[in-house]
Every structure is written in C-alpha cells, then in structure tokens.
Amino acid sequence: MGSCSSSLALVGWRGPGKIEVILSVWFGSFRDAINCVSFSFWRKYNSVLQWLRKVLFHEVTVMLIDFHTHIFPPDIRDHRERYCARDPWFNELYSNPRANIATAEDLVAEMHTSGVDVSVTFSFGWTDPGLIEETNSYVIDAMRRYPKRIYGMAVLQPAAGTRAVRELERCAEAGMIGLGELMPHGQGYKLSDIDLLTPFMEVVRQHQLLVLSHCSEPIGHVYPGKGDVSLQDIVTFLTAFPDVRFVAAHWGGGLPFYCLMPEIQRITAHVWYDTAATPYLYRNAILPVVADLVGADRILFASDYGLLRQRRVIDHIAQSGLSPEAVQMVLGDNAQSLLGLVRKEI
C-alpha cells in the first residue's frame, strides 16, 4: 500500500473529482482502490476522502483545465424559442428543450462538482453581430466575476467586416485570451477564406491571442452541429497563418492522423487538439493513438459543456490507456503552459 500512496502523492491533484480521476488511473477504478486496502486500514481511517487528502494534499497542485465550454446569458436559456427563431444554426442545436443551455453559474457549479479549476469558455457563433456582442459581453462579465476560474474567448461573425474587427479588439482589451469558437458552417463563410480572415489574424498577432475553431470529421455519423469545416479548409488556414497558435476542436476532424505526412507535420507545428465531445465521436483509444502521432503535449482536455458533463470526459481520458504522466499533461499541464498559468504550490 505504501508504494500506491507514494505514486498517488506524486500526482498531487486536489478536490473530490480529481481524487477519483487519479484513482481510476492508478487502480483502474475506485472499487479496485477500495479492494486493495485492508479492512483494518479502513477501521483506522473511517473516511476514504480523509485518507486520500492525507496522501494528496502535500504536493504540488496541478490545475485541471477544461479548454472548451459554452455559456449563455440567462435570458437566452429562459427564452430559447425566441432565439431559435432569430438564428437557424442556434435553432438546429438548441430547439430541443432537452438541449442544455448553461449559464456562467451553471459552469462554475459543474466545475466544483468535477474538480475542475479553470474553464475556457465562449458563447455561440450567431449570424447577428449584435447577438455576438451581447454574449461576448456576458462572457467578459463572467471572467470578472470568476477571476482565475473562467477565461473567455471572443466569438465573431467575420462577415460583419470592420465591425467584427473592432469587436475582437474590444474583447482582447477586456482580457479575453483568444478568438473562438469559430463556427464557419453556421455563419456562412469558410475557414479557407483567407482574405476574409486576414484582418482578424492581424489582431490575433497583435494581442498574442489563441484561435480555436470547430472542425468536422469528413466521414462518420451525422449529428446536430457536425458542420462542414473540412480538413482542406483547416490546412489552407494553417498554411496561410503558420505562426498562429491554433486549437483544433473535436480532434481537428481527424487531422492528427495526417501528421504522418511531412508537409502536414510542418504546418501543424503550432496546433493543439481538444477533446470536446469525444465520447460522442471516438472510442477512448484515440487518446494514446494521437499521443503517439503528435505527442501527448498537444492534447487538451475539453468537454464541450453544457453538451457533456465535464466528469464524463475526464473519465474517458483517465481510462484511455494513457500513462499517468500523459493523463496529467492532457488534463491540465498542457493548457496551463498554453495559457501561461503558474503552477500553485501548497
């Protein structure tokens, strides 16, 4: 048992959600962890949590960071029919009353339940620039109400031209960390429209922002929100803007599998892949496969909350067969480095 305790202590995550994640990595499951400890041990330590706290809470704390979440103002949640009538893409994704529309408070509560320290969040790619500005302002307000917990990205309607450029500048000056989630399929443009996107990339470079875009699988099942952001669109964008730090959502639509091609490997030097909605798309074997192709340091834990609960995706990652060190990188270290956050010590 001593060796198990030492191994767990090396990981050093805090919070009930994190404790169970680490148990699933090291023992296979929480039940297996319980079974490996003698009855006399449990009589002495009458709380699992008490024991785990003694083991875990004396080392370096690693942040657990979700890089892809969505939030909306309460009025949109409360009057979804009104907004469905205003935007066809929103209607496709949220007309079903069962589709979760989460507020900032919902996200923070979810983070507490799942043991997540930081969430990168954004709203929705509306066609109406006015709605985009309104929801960006809501995300900025959430950043201010939950500092160091919520980091916002700016959604834009690039077709709005100069108005959209000014909006990105406003959001960058308010402390947003990036541009995203780009949703070309729902807003009537292509990620490969370089002339349209160049003015925005100039602002991205000026403020050292990240760019996060929806990416679509070229084959496989059809689902609401899949879109048509093709691999060719992504490659065209990366070729035009090779210096931009780019987060390819939903595993980049399969882009990592093409990184065995030398020319694709070269243009993806500044690309990270997020795991948003992974349980709906791939078996969790994708994690060790992609880690082998591009490196575990290029994978970012992302849930796509409120579509999926954060804990479900955490479990998907923790039980994927990645090494504990690689799981630690995916769940927090990579994002921590990308965001420039300082590791906390107890």
Key descriptive features of the protein:
346 residues, eight-stranded parallel β-sheet, 2 domains, 8 strands, 50% helix, TIM Barrel
Write a structural description:
- By secondary structure, this protein is α/β, with parallel strands linked by helices.
- It folds into two domains: 2-56, no CATH class; 65-339, Alpha-Beta Barrel (TIM Barrel).
- Helices cover 50% and strands 10% of the residues.
- It is built from 19 helices and eight strands.
- The protein has helices at 2-11, 16-27, 30-35, 39-44, 48-56, 74-78, 80-86, 88-94, 104-114, 129-145, 162-173, 184-187, 194-207, 231-240, 262-267, 278-281, 286-294, 310-318, 324-339; strands at residues 65-70, 118-122, 150-154, 178-182, 210-213, 246-248, 271-274, 299-300.
- The protein has an eight-stranded parallel beta sheet.
- Helix 7 packs across helix 8 and helix 10 packs parallel to helix 11 (162-173).
- It is globular, with a radius of gyration of 21 Å.
Relevant CATH superfamily of the largest domain: Metal-dependent hydrolases
Write the CATH fold name of the largest domain: TIM Barrel
- Characterize the overall form: globular
Largest sheet data: 8 strands, parallel
Order of helices and strands: HHHHHEHHHHEHEHEHHEHEHEHHEHH
Low-confidence stretches are: 1-16, 34-60
Helix content: 40-55%
- Spatial order of the strands in the main sheet? 1-2-3-4-5-6-7-8
Integer count of domains: 2
Compute the number of helices: 19
Structural class: alpha/beta
From the alpha-carbon coordinates, what is the Rg to the nearest angstrom? 21 Å
What's the total number of strands? 8
**In the CATH classification, which architecture of the largest domain applies?**
Alpha-Beta Barrel
First-to-last CA distance: 24 Å
- CATH class identity of the largest domain: Alpha Beta
**What is the beta-strand fraction?**
5-15%
